[in-house]
Amino acid sequence: MKTMKSKLPQDRDFFDAAEGIRKVQATYKISSTDMANGLLDGVQYNSTLASLDCLAMCEHLVKEWRLQVAEEWILSGIETTNRVVSQTELQLLRGSIEPELHRCLGKARMKQKKYEGALEAYKIVLKHSPHDSNIFTEYLNLESRVLSGLEPIEYKEEEDVESDYLPTCCSGRCEVPQKLRNLYCVYNHVTAPFLRLSPIKMEILSIDPFVVILHDMISPKDSALIRSSSKKHLLPSATVDVGAPKGQKKVAEFRTSKSVWYDYDHNEATRNMNKRLGDATGLDIRFAEFFQVINYGLGGFFNTHMDTLLSDKARFNGGYDRIATAVFYLSDVPQGGGTYFPKLNITVFPKAGSTLFWYNLDTKGNDHLSTRHTGCPVLVGSKWVVSKWILDIGQEFTRPCIDSISKAKYLASAEKLII
Fold first, then answer.
1. Nearest 5°: CA angle at 74, between 73 and 79?
2. CA 23 to CA 254: how far, in whole Å?
3. Is residue 351 scored above 90 in pLDDT?
4. Predicted local confidence at residue 242, as pLDDT
5. pLDDT at position 383, please?
6. Predicted pLDDT of residue 168
7. What percent of the chain has pLDDT over 70?
8. What whole-number distance in Å separates Cα of residue 186 and Cα of residue 418?
9. Partners of 259 in the β-ladder
10. Nearest 5 degrees, angle CA 73-CA 349-CA 362?
11. Per-residue model confidence (pLDDT) at position 128
């Protein structure tokens, strides 16, 4: 057991799983009962959560002070115990967890100042476990507080601090603005000589900011090579801690994914992707960051953010910034996992072989705030992408600053295709 312990799921793995479920639920507005019954954003699956799973969610949410959702989960767990379901050997060995369900319900209600409901829950617990001294002590403390009118020792209001980071349109069912409804698809044959023989299919989603889908950008063979060669190298996605010693990184809290970085010359697939991206965009890909291979599993997400590194004031002092972003999709995702632009109300769902491309900076080199985007949680499947950030320094002749997007026809980059 000691030799196996390090290979088994750890506390961090459970935390990621529970937070993934919570973020999926909050983003797609799924009730705890629907999620426990396998009804995910309108699609019914032949899979359910047991009452033990609901108990684990409740205990996690109580610790995180998400008390209302915790209560909903425990009520779903109690409902689950009342229906006939097949139990695993572990569940049968563990025995009835109904007392623990009501105990967690009591704790969640107590912290919400729902004293009467909390007492009712604890009375049920005592019926199942009349000789448990800890439970009896908790009940007496609660009863004395109710009778004396005292506040709970710990109490704080729940704050919805994530409303800006968990958008409501990840399902893709939100109405697209009128100005984005009459856009079009074109064959790009002008940004590289080779494209005269084999043009690239480009689907224009927005003109300002310039957001497009490039189709057939990576072959199934190259996609498979990237996925297979990177699996053993993937590590939890990290960020640089500004306050820490130079180069020290920490696991990112605002995203749930694993990733690895590769040079453009890492293998045949990365070389093909690099050449293809340069042809499709007309930009000089020599001035770009490494490829980042990213895998988002179930519940994998990336909070709403911008890809730029500098403020507008600091950008023109000689430092480099990310002028554009390209996201290669290596796999289809059965449900969820879209890239959502809140300011544009556009949701792009992964399609194997295609690439989502947009400019982070406007025509004058400033932040384009409309490019704020969210990596929506994955509901079903696994999302494999490769991100590539192209730098502004080095693009002076391919994408120089212009007064407005109406002068894009004079550029050497892909915007010249705007009609």
1. 100
2. 11
3. yes
4. 41
5. 95
6. 74
7. 88
8. 9
9. 235, 294
10. 115
11. 81
Report the C-alpha gap between 82 and 96 in whole angstroms. 12
* pTM of the shown model: 0.84
**Average pLDDT score over residue span 265-292:** 96
Read off the pLDDT of residues 23-35 as tens digits, 9 standing for 90 and up.
899 899 999 999 9
> Tokens in use for 357?
């491309």
